[in-house]
Write a structure and sequence with these properties.
By secondary structure, the chain is mainly beta. It contains two helices and 23 strands. The chain has helices at 2-43, 185-188, and strands at residues 63-66, 69-74, 77-82, 87-92, 97-102, 105-111, 119-125, 132-139, 141-144, 148-154, 160-167, 172-180, 191-195, 199-204, 207-212, 217-222, 230-240, 243-252, 271-276, 282-286, 293-297, 300-305, 308-313. It is globular and about 55 Å long. 30% of the residues are buried.
Length: 320
């Protein structure tokens, strides 16, 4: 009898786990679908046809609008939307990791053949997308500029990380600066989010580091908590001129589990923060949680969550 009860308990447990996983998967699909639909609805609004989001494009931005065409790294591949024709077109299938449209070229990354951590930097032709050219091999990460590509590589012992600038006209690289392993690990292994003539931005789960090339100084954006189990998880980063907009969540490692990270929803530090690249000064714009991410179009910051979105003015920092 005991064996029979134990067997029934095991079967019941398996059924419960299956149902929980199934419900979780369904809810995930629903929320992801909602977020995709909301984002596409925002991006394809007729008033956005004249926008050019090239300067705001970074590795956190899945979209770019230029010359009346919206480019989007979507579920079906790399797509474009023609505002005048109101038509979608899939340029090529498959995920495009970190891209930027410059002229008739698409700069992007794909995994290096013999490495799980390194990438090759490519150029693809929008008019003949089957053709692609490898520009740089085996980089740790990169950021695309208008006429150059910033990328980084480690030395053999992973003691130094070198930042390079690749000229797309001459196909030549030069060293910009070096990050020594003795500095904070968040800088050494932080993902390069954005780069320009004056500033480099590196993001890690615990914070964002800004390097000022003019002064050779670092500024850090992050949250320090008295409770050792709390940390600030960077969910999204957007850029507008000299300001970063960072959306983050306060998470608790003690309450996190197999289902994922646990968010302290009442934490005062949750929400969207503005960080000035020049001064490093930070200011909280909104205290709230937006699982769907944040997106900049023109002078408006869109915050998406739970099947809806909010419009936040970049100038007045109030919801509109």
């Amino acid at each position: 009898m005991k064996k029979g009860k134990a067997f029934k308990a095991v079967i019941l447990g398996i059924i419960v786990v299956f149902l929980v996983c199934t419900v979780g998967y369904i809810l995930k699909e629903i929320f992801v679908a909602d977020t995709q639909e909301i984002l596409i609805d925002i991006l394809t609004k007729p008033e956005n046809v004249s926008l050019n989001t090239t300067n705001q494009k970074n590795r956190y931005s899945y979209y770019q609008i230029v010359d009346g065409i919206l480019y989007l790294d979507g579920e079906d591949g790399f797509c474009q939307y023609d505002f005048s024709k109101k038509e979608w077109k899939t340029i090529w299938s498959g995920e495009v990791n970190n891209y930027k449209v410059v002229g008739r070229n698409v700069f992007c990354m794909e995994p290096a053949d013999d490495s799980e951590e390194l990438w090759n930097v490519l150029s693809r032709d929008l008019d003949n997308f089957t053709e692609k050219k490898v520009l740089i091999e085996k980089v740790f990460d990169c950021v695309f500029g208008d006429d150059c590509i910033y990328y980084s590589c480690f030395d053999e012992n992973h003691e130094k990380r070198y930042i390079y600038q690749f000229d797309t006209n001459t196909s030549k690289s030069k060293t910009i600066f070096c990050i020594d392993s003795q500095v904070d690990d968040e800088i050494v292994y932080g993902e390069m989010v954005a780069a320009s003539e004056n500033y480099f931005v590196f993001g890690e789960n615990g914070g964002v580091w800004i390097y000022n090339r003019k002064t050779s100084q670092w500024n850090r954006f992050g949250m320090d908590f008295n409770e050792p189990n709390l940390y600030f998880w960077i969910h999204d980063i957007q850029i507008n001129q000299t300001d970063l907009y960072i959306q983050g969540l306060v998470c608790n490692t003690e309450k996190s589990g197999a289902a994922g990270y646990y968010v302290e929803e009442d934490a005062a530090e949750n929400g969207i923060w503005r960080v000035n690249l020049e001064t490093g000064q930070k200011k909280q714009i909104v205290n709230g949680i937006y699982y769907g991410g944040i997106y900049i179009l023109g002078d408006v910051l869109y915050a998406v969550d739970d099947g809806k979105y909010e419009r936040i003015s970049l100038w007045s920092y109030v919801k509109i």
